[in-house]
Every structure is written in structure tokens, then in C-alpha cells.
Automatic annotation (TrEMBL):
GO terms of biological process kind: phosphorelay signal transduction system; regulation of DNA-templated transcription
Organism: Parapedobacter indicus
All copies of domain Sigma-54 factor interaction, residue ranges: 145-371
PROSITE patterns hit by this protein: RESPONSE_REGULATORY, SIGMA54_INTERACT_1, SIGMA54_INTERACT_2, SIGMA54_INTERACT_3, SIGMA54_INTERACT_4
InterPro entries assigned to the protein according to its UniProt record, in alphabetical order: AAA+_ATPase (IPR003593), AAA_lid_NorR (IPR058031), CheY-like_superfamily (IPR011006), Homeodomain-like_sf (IPR009057), HTH_Fis (IPR002197), P-loop_NTPase (IPR027417), Sig_transdc_resp-reg_receiver (IPR001789), Sigma_54_int (IPR002078)
Domain of life: Bacteria
Name listed for the protein in its UniProt record: Two-component system, NtrC family, response regulator HydG
Modified residues (4-aspartylphosphate): D52
Molecular function terms, GO-annotated: ATP binding; sequence-specific DNA binding
Every Response regulatory domain range: 3-117
Gene3D superfamilies for this protein: 1.10.8.60, 3.40.50.2300, Homeodomain-like, P-loop containing nucleotide triphosphate hydrolases
Keywords (A to Z) from UniProt: ATP-binding, DNA-binding, Nucleotide-binding, Phosphoprotein, Transcription, Transcription regulation
Classification via SUPFAM superfamilies: CheY-like, Homeodomain-like, P-loop containing nucleoside triphosphate hydrolases
Length: 456
């Protein structure tokens, strides 16, 4: 019997969820704060964690961080409001299994919970660290959409151009645009294709263990190093190492990585000797590495021998229908449905929405829609309510536009507050703790206001 830890500070909603999950045969422990959630994790064994994104004393991701520090691998699902989709998508990069938008649809919740417990889902093809067996790469070939838009053609031209060389590639693009897919494509089309493709999500590596994960360690080199460990550089020998979210590597590790790239040698933690390595490195980021001030310029130039920018979904509208059709047919097979038509309203909403979470968000929205469509036609009722509302009311609470024709004082002051928050966030380079400090409010209040005003 699977044991689920539910952390949700809305007590009524927590009770509804608890009862629902218990009825479906799960054991459920409910906690109402980050602190009590972490305590429960230390005390008991759970198979799954279901987290509210915003909690009274922090955010659900704080619990995910605590899990990582404890070295526990328990799948977690974040429940978030529609306005937080962009953040939720990023959370997946930090090791969260999946996200689900509120109001939570019971069928969708059950689907995601079961997938998490079975260890598979839309994103589960890609655990934080893994070697991709080469046989799987061939099946993957047909498992994507290439697209025909100008942006797609340019992207694939660049992939074809750089793949056969041994250049280091930096792939840039918003979260969920398909950067890992691009990296795999380069590997598959390279002369290293029959050697390993090793993918590492640097965002999920703890600061302490990053070196050992990448370069390996010798027994006894630090507390917990009970045996020798081979690092991912050696695992990728002859092949390609994909460093996703490379901006998360600490300064120390950046120095070691630079040496590995320049001299083609690595030194496992605690070892006296160096080891020769032959690995092509492909890195990805969705931030401005140099602008962050935390990334070494010499390393930046070393990993950026060739740059590929993956377009946001909103900038490749010409490929949109192909992606929708592809994700629908995949979801039909997975969920045993027969959806082959979209209601006009669904088409309109898909066209008007700007898809901040890109392909990952589209894939999730389509999967949910297919799940909630028993017939062949997908109706608007199968889309997240807030998505429909936001499209139909562009000037609603999320985006107030006061004018002298509209003397509503509350609306005016809210518009003013929204603008101020956006300006300060920009000034603080989107560092929310810093922005909260400048605004003289706490982080939680800032998050609440950002949610209220639809600021992402
Ligand atoms: N060309 C494609 N055809 C079909 N599905 C795709 C394609 N590219 C990406 N996807 C799907 O979109 C989702 C996001 O892709 P991927 O993980 O490669 O994005 P990413 O840019 O690396 O995300 P992040 O920035 O969060 O690391 C995955 O589920 C992937 O399977």
C-alpha cells in the first residue's frame, strides 16, 4: 500500500484530498507546513509527496530541497495555481516529478499519482542522472516532431551542421523548449552515436556531491564515500555528456570542468592521479550565464564553441498544430482514448495562449485534455479553468488597466502596485528574495502578490 505525504496549508482542501486518496486505497499523512512536512519525512517512510506550491512558512520546493540534502529519492508532485505554471515547470528541473494545476481535477490527480508511483510519466523518460542505453536512442528517433516553420528549419540546419564535429555546444532556450531533445539529436547524428549519451541535470546536484558525481571519488575521501565511485565523465567515455542547467554548477566545479575540457583529464575527489577522458560536452541553460555574475567567462567561451538557440513555442506557431496532433496521438495511446478533433473554442484558446512552459506545458495540457475527453472531440471543459478564464478576460485581475473613464480607486492602486513590483523585480534581476527586501515585504507576500497580478 503506497504511503503518501500530503503537505497543504488549506485545511479544507487538504481534507478533501486526503479523503479522496484514501478512498482510492492510499495511506495518507497530512501536514500543513514546510517544517512539519520535513519532520514527517525524517520520521516516516513515504512513497510519494504531494505538495502545495505556496505554504505558510515557505514553498513546497523547500521540502524537495530537504529531500535532496537527506539523499532520499521520493517522487514529488507540486500542486500549483495556473499563474505559477512557469515556476512549476522550472520545479521539474529541480527534481520534482510533475506538477498539477489547481483547481485539482480528481482524474488528473489520480493519473499523475499513479504515474509517479510507477516511475513513469511525460517527464519520467528522463531521471536526473542516467545513461541512455543506445538501443533506446533508435526508438527515440521517431518519437519527436521536427517542424517545418522557418525557426524549426534553422534549428535543424544548425543541429546537422554541428553534430559531426567535436565542438562543444551551448544550447540556450526557455524552459521546456526541447533543449535536451536537441542535445540527443546532436549526439545521435555524431560519430559518437554508438557510445553513451549521459545526461546530468546540474540543477539537482547538491553542492557537496557535484564534484564526486561528475568526476568520481576514491573510497574514504569524505564522510559517506564508502567505496570508489566512477564519475559521469568516465561513464560518458567516448560519447557525449549533456550538462543541463549548467549555470547551477558552483565555482569550484566550474574550475574542474574547465580543466577537463581544456586538458581532457579529470581528477576524482581524493585521488592523486588524473584520468584521461574523451567526452564531448553539450551544455544547456535558460539563463544569461555571463549576466548572472556567477559563471566563469573562460569556461563560458570553452563550452560555447557553437551556440544553438531553441525557439519558444510562441515563436514557432507554424509548428504548433503538428505538436498538438503528435501529443494527442501519444496521449490517446497511453490513456486508451480516441480524441481526433478539437472544439473551435479549444483551438482559439490554444492560439491565444502564450505557452510560457513551452512544449512541456503543451504536452501536459494536451494529456490532461485527452484524459478528460471520453469521446472523439475535445471540448473546452477539458482545459484548465484558469487558462480559459485568462484568455477570455485578458484585462481581469491578472492585468488591470485603469483609466480616467474607470475611476475605481482599488483598481488604480492595484495597477500601481503591480507596476512597482515588476519594476523592482527587474531591478533585482528577478531575484525574488532581493526584490522582497527592496519592497520591504516578506517573500511569501511577494509570491502572493505576483500570483494575484499574474506576474511570472
Ligand atoms: N521536437 C520534439 N517533439 C516532440 N516532443 C518534444 C520535442 N522536443 C521536446 N519535446 C518534449 O517536450 C518536453 C520538454 O523537452 P526537454 O526536456 O527537452 O526541454 P528542455 O528545454 O530541456 O527543458 P528544461 O529547460 O526544463 O531542461 C519533453 O517532454 C519532451 O519529450
Amino acid at each position: 500500500m503506497a504511503n503518501i505525504l500530503l503537505v497543504e496549508d488549506d485545511t479544507t482542501f487538504a481534507t478533501i484530498l486526503e479523503n479522496f486518496l484514501k478512498k482510492k486505497g492510499f495511506d495518507v499523512v497530512v501536514k500543513y507546513s514546510v517544517k512539519s512536512g520535513i519532520e514527517a519525512l525524517k520520521r516516516d517512510t513515504f512513497h510519494l509527496i504531494l505538495l502545495d506550491y505556496r505554504l505558510g512558512d515557505g514553498i513546497g520546493l523547500d521540502i524537495v530541497d530537504a529531500l535532496r540534502v537527506e539523499g532520499k529519492a521520493i517522487p514529488s508532485i507540486i500542486m500549483t495555481s495556473f499563474n505559477d505554471v512557469r515556476t512549476a515547470v522550472k520545479a521539474i528541473r529541480q527534481g520534482v516529478f510533475d506538477y498539477i494545476t489547481k483547481p485539482v481535477n480528481p482524474d488528473e490527480l489520480l493519473m499523475v499519482v499513479n504515474e509517479a508511483l510507477e516511475g513513469k510519466s511525460t517527464e519520467r523518460e528522463r531521471p536526473a542522472l542516467h545513461n541512455q542505453p543506445n538501443e533506446m536512442l533508435t526508438t527515440m528517433e521517431t518519437d519527436f516532431v521536427e517542424g517545418t516553420s522557418t525557426a524549426a528549419r534553422k534549428l535543424h540546419d544548425y543541429i546537422a551542421l554541428v553534430a559531426p564535429t567535436d565542438m562543444s555546444v551551448l544550447i540556450r532556450g526557455e524552459s521546456g523548449t526541447g533543449k535536451e531533445y536537441v542535445a540527443r539529436s546532436i549526439h545521435q547524428m555524431s560519430k559518437r552515436a554508438d557510445k553513451p549519451f549521459v545526461s546530468i541535470d546540474c540543477g539537482t546536484l547538491s553542492k557537496e556531491l557535484a564534484s564526486s558525481e561528475l568526476f568520481g571519488h576514491v573510497k574514504g575521501s569524505f564522510t559517506g564515500a564508502l567505496n570508489d565511485k566512477t564519475g559521469q565523465f568516465v561513464e560518458a567515455s567516448g560519447g557525449t555528456l549533456f550538462l543541463d542547467e549548467i549555470g547551477n554548477l558552483s565555482y569550484d566545479v566550474q574550475v574542474k570542468l574547465l580543466r577537463a575540457l581544456q586538458e581532457k583529464v579529470i581528477q576524482p575527489v581524493g585521488a592523486n592521479k588524473t584520468v584521461n577522458v574523451d567526452v564531448r560536452v553539450i551544455a544547456a541553460t535558460n539563463e544569461d550565464l555571463l549576466g548572472s555574475g556567477k559563471f566563469r567567462e573562460d569556461l563560458y567561451h570553452r563550452i560555447n564553441e557553437f551556440e544553438i538557440i531553441v525557439p519558444a513555442l510562441r515563436d514557432r506557431r507554424g509548428d504548433f498544430q503538428q505538436f498538438v496532433d503528435f501529443f494527442i496521438s501519444k496521449a490517446n495511446v497511453e490513456l486508451g482514448r480516441q480524441v481526433n478533433e478539437l472544439a473551435d473554442e479549444v483551438r482559439e484558446i490554444f492560439g491565444a495562449y502564450d505557452w510560457p512552459g513551452n512544449l512541456r506545458e503543451l504536452k501536459n495540457v494536451v494529456k490532461r485534455m485527452v484524459l478528460l475527453s471520453p469521446g472523439t472531440r475535445a471540448e473546452v471543459s477539458a482545459l484548465p479553468e484558469e487558462m480559459v478564464f485568462a484568455i477570455k478576460n485578458p484585462d481581469s485581475a491578472a492585468n488591470p488597466t485603469p483609466s480616467s473613464d474607470n475611476p475605481d480607486l482599488r483598481l488604480h492602486s492595484e495597477a500601481h502596485e503591480r507596476k512597482l513590483i515588476m519594476d523592482v523585480l527587474q531591478k533585482a534581476k528577478y531575484n525574488k528574495s532581493k526584490a522582497a527586501q527592496m519592497l520591504n515585504i516578506d517573500r511569501k507576500t511577494l509570491y502572493n502578490k505576483m500570483e494575484k497580478y499574474g506576474i511570472e
